[in-house]
Amino acid sequence: MRTIIITGNTYAHRRELRRLGALWNTDAKGYVAPSAHVDAIRAYANSHDGLDVADFEATDQDVTPATGERLRELRQARLDRRRERLLNQAANAEKRGDAARARISPHERDFLALMEPVKRGHHSQRRHEKLLARAQKSFMDAGREYSDARKLRERAECMAPARVAGDAERERQAARDAAAAIIEPGDKVRSIVYGDGVVTKANKNTFTINFTARGFIGKCDKSHVSLLEKGTPEAAKVERKFKVGDLVTASRGFSRLEGKVVRLTPRGYSVEYHYESRISGGLVAQRDTFSESSLEARA
Q1: How far is CA 211 from CA 175, 248, 252, 266, in A?
Q2: Any coiled-coil ranges, and where (predicted)?
Q3: Domain positions in the chain
Q4: How far apart are CA 243 and CA 261, in angstroms?
Q5: What CATH architecture applies to the domain 181-236?
Q6: Is residue 266 scored above 80 in pLDDT?
Q7: Going by C-beta distance under 8 Å and a sequence separation of 6 or more, which residues neighbour residue 171?
Q8: Residues facing residue 289 across a β-bridge
Q9: What pLDDT, on a 0 to 100 scale, did the predictor assign at position 278?
């Protein structure tokens, strides 16, 4: 496929070239224009100094935006090149550190190891002071270069593999599948959000869990749940402390609201209570959902 390539000082124009549809070609060190965008990209390049336009024989891959595994390969290649640069920089820093350390000869190191004090007024005073100054500078320079080399190597070793869109969801789904294979209703589990509870139902991507210590039932993503102890199907049955029609006192912050249970909900109880309106001065009925731990029975 015959098209054009933009080379030269492309870095300063990279965003505009990408907006116009140009694609970076690593091997050719330039931006390749897909056939549908050749005219617009050529006009832009001709109107800006530092950009060169040349004919280019491109493949379909050169003018097609990378996606999926091909995008991963390109990103991984870029990371590998960056890692190689960091390792080369670390090696050069170590060489500079060795050179700085070598500025003090072995016999001078042996002399300094004796911790001989400077003899004031002696003919060796000036020579000794110069040696101490050189040794300190050598030590500081070598330490700085070795420290830089260590940091560069750590950066290179800690670089994560290239990722593409969808990787995170695939990892979550793999964690869900692993959890679903070993966790069943009745098992005691631990949620990273709410703590310990008992699975009452297994859904497609979530578990419905009865958090008895917290007094409510909620759904948690399977990837956020770990097995603590295998249980029995009977343990999955939820025993309600209250039933419809029970008179209760609900706690919310510093308020205590007297009401009646009107419905059982998956997360607790729907309670109807009355409060005094600041506008009309009369009692207003309202329904809210409360967890079991926030309710107390009243006569």
Answers
A1: 22, 21, 19, 12
A2: 76-103
A3: 2-65, 69-157, 181-236, 247-297
A4: 7
A5: Roll (2.30)
A6: no
A7: none
A8: 270
A9: 81
How buried is residue 29: exposed, middle or buried, by Cβ count under 10 Å (0-12/13-18/19+)? exposed
Reading the block at residue 3, the tokens are 């098209």
- Show the tokens assigned to 114: 């004796």
The Cα–Cα gap between 215 and 295 comes to 9
**What number of other Cβ atoms are within 10 A of residue 72's Cβ?**
16
Distance of alpha carbon 235 from alpha carbon 199, whole angstroms: 8
How high is the pLDDT of residue 276? 83
In this model, does residue 204 exceed pLDDT 80?
yes
Integer-rounded Cα radius of gyration of the chain: 36
Q: Tell me if the pTM is above 0.85.
A: no
Q: Can you count the helices (H) and strands (E) in the chain?
A: 6, 14
CB 271 within 8 A of CB 259: yes
Q: Specify the pLDDT at position 240.
A: 84
Instruction: Name the token pair of 10.
Output: 């492309």
Q: Is the pLDDT of residue 247 over 90?
A: yes
3-state secondary structure of 43: helix
At residue 189's C-alpha, the angle toward residues 250 and 265, to 5°, is 35
Cα 211 from Cα 293, distance rounded (Å): 10
- The 3-state DSSP class for residue 296 equals strand
Cβ-Cβ contacts under 8 Å for 91 (sequence gap 6 or more): 149
The C-alpha atoms of residue 265 and residue 191 are separated, in whole angstroms, by 21
Q: What is the pLDDT of residue 117?
A: 93
User: How many angstroms separate the CA atoms of 225 and 252, rounded?
Assistant: 28
The contacts of residue 214 (CB under 8 Å, 6+ apart) are: 194, 195, 197, 291, 293
Pair of tokens at residue 242: 């209250």
Give the rounded distance of the alpha carbon of 68 from its chain centre.
20
